[in-house]
Specification:
Layout lengths: L11 E6 L2 H7 L2 H9 L2 E5 L14 E4 L3 H7 L1 H7 L4 E3 L2 H4 L10 H5 L2 E3 L2 E4 L3 E4 L5 H5 L6 E5 L10 E5 L2 H10 L5 E5 L6 E8 L2 E8 L6 H6 L3 E5 L26 H15 L3 E8 L6 E9 L9 H15 L1
Parallel strand pairs: 1-2, 1-3, 3-4, 6-15
Antiparallel strand pairs: 5-6, 7-10, 8-9, 8-10, 9-13, 11-12, 11-14, 14-15
Helix pairs in contact: 2-11
Bound molecules: adenosine-5'-triphosphate, Myo inositol 3,4,5,6 tetrakisphosphate (4MY) and magnesium ion (2 copies).
The site of one magnesium ion has 3 residues, from strand 15.
Keywords: ATP-binding, Kinase, Magnesium, Metal-binding, Nucleotide-binding, Transferase
Enzyme class: transferase
Protein name: Inositol-tetrakisphosphate 1-kinase
């Protein structure tokens, strides 16, 4: 006797257009196995060949810059395969490649919960090298200098902590015409909260951050100090000679506030895959500040990132 036919669960073909380093980090065997079991085939997209020659996809995820898109010829592909979901549109991702436009949506969003508010630190962009010193005076020291453009290079993560006028002068002299954002440094207890968003899925983790600089300490600090990728380790990896056990004690922001921030930014930016760096003002515990937003961050650093990503992808393709 023949068996009744089982309804077939649909399979989805999702292409990933990523650079080799990102593939190595993200597309781990554990993710490939998990997605496969849940009906998703993750397919590598060759960045050197037009997309149209690489078959059709239900969805494409990507972390690229404009020069890569030129080779892929997205418009030509979309003219033929209109139903492919491009997660997210490259034009919208652009807003996260600039440290002014990335925080712009936060200035319109009214995110609050009880007495808690979420804002941004005071910042300004220096257009003209000579204006750096002058402009720095409208901010309080210490100041953080950040490259305006975030282009995926290590240099776009080379930041600088400036303690006084002399520091601004040095930065001015060393800078060869790259555009810089000056942002007020806010004491925040040495912990940064990283809010990872994948569509409606939102998760918050703690990471190490720069330690507070007291008024007294600031008087003894001179000039500037360069740093980069300070938050690229978990709180447990904090170096032993640091006396403050700050991170374990730090409370993550209330879940409702985290969800509201993720949802609000997702809608305001029209993006689905990003993370938000949030700090808590040490002078006013009710005040959280967004200091950075990154497109398609390192999700592998989240515990159980496989279901996090897979659930998001399934939601997306099923609703398309
Ligand atoms: N305004 C600020 N006040 C206090 N600390 C700050 C501020 N801005 C940045 N920091 C510290 O510097 C770190 C790096 O800053 P930011 O996140 O803006 O740089 P980034 O290079 O974009 O980092 P990422 O690797 O997350 O992309 C933050 O994680 C935080 O520890
Ligand atoms: O290096 P990781 O994979 O962990 O991810 C980092 C990511 O690097 P990658 O996407 O090139 O790998 C960075 O992207 P670029 O700005 O340099 O493009 C930026 O988004 C960081 O914030 C991410 O760290 P996280 O915020 O998740 O700690
Ligand atoms: Mg950051
Ligand atoms: Mg960043």
């Amino acid at each position: 006797m023949s068996q009744p036919e089982q309804p077939q669960t649909p399979r989805y073909c999702i292409g990933y257009a990523l650079h080799p380093q990102k593939i190595q980090n993200l597309i781990q065997p554990s993710l490939l196995n998990y997605t496969k079991k849940h009906g998703i085939d993750l397919v590598h997209i060759d960045l050197t060949i037009p997309l149209i020659k690489q078959g059709s996809f239900h969805c494409i995820i990507h972390k690229l810059h404009s020069q890569d898109w030129n080779k892929l010829r997205l418009d030509e592909y979309l003219a033929k395969y209109q139903n492919t979901l491009i997660m997210d549109h490259p034009d919208l991702v652009e807003q996260l490649h600039n440290r002014v436009s990335m925080l712009e949506p936060m200035t319109h969003l009214q995110i609050s919960l009880g007495n808690y508010t979420v804002g941004v630190p005071k910042q300004l962009v220096v257009d003209d090298n000579n204006a750096m010193e002058e402009m720095g005076f409208s901010l309080r020291f210490p100041i953080i200098a950040k490259p305006l453009f975030v282009d995926g290079t290590a240099s776009s993560h080379e930041l600088c902590l400036i303690f006084d006028r002399e520091g601004l002068r040095t930065l001015n002299n060393q800078n060869n015409n790259s555009r810089i954002v000056l942002q007020e440094f806010v004491n925040h207890g040495g912990v940064v909260f990283k809010v990872y968003v994948a569509g409606e899925h939102v998760r918050c983790v703690k990471r190490r951050s720069l330690l507070d600089i007291s008024e007294g300490k600031l008087r003894t600090l001179k000039g500037l100090v360069k740093f980069s990728q300070i938050s690229n380790s978990t709180v447990e990896e904090r170096s032993e000679n640091m006396t403050e056990i700050v991170t374990e004690k730090a409370e993550v922001p209330p879940e409702e506030l985290v969800m509201e921030l993720g949802r609000g930014l997702r809608e305001a930016m029209g993006l689905n895959l990003f993370n938000v760096d949030v700090i808590r003002d040490a002078k006013d515990y009710n005040k959280y500040l967004v200091i950075d937003i990154n497109y398609f961050p390192g999700y592998t650093k989240l515990p159980c990132y496989e279901p996090f990503i897979t659930d998001f992808l399934l939601d997306s393709v099923r609703n398309n």
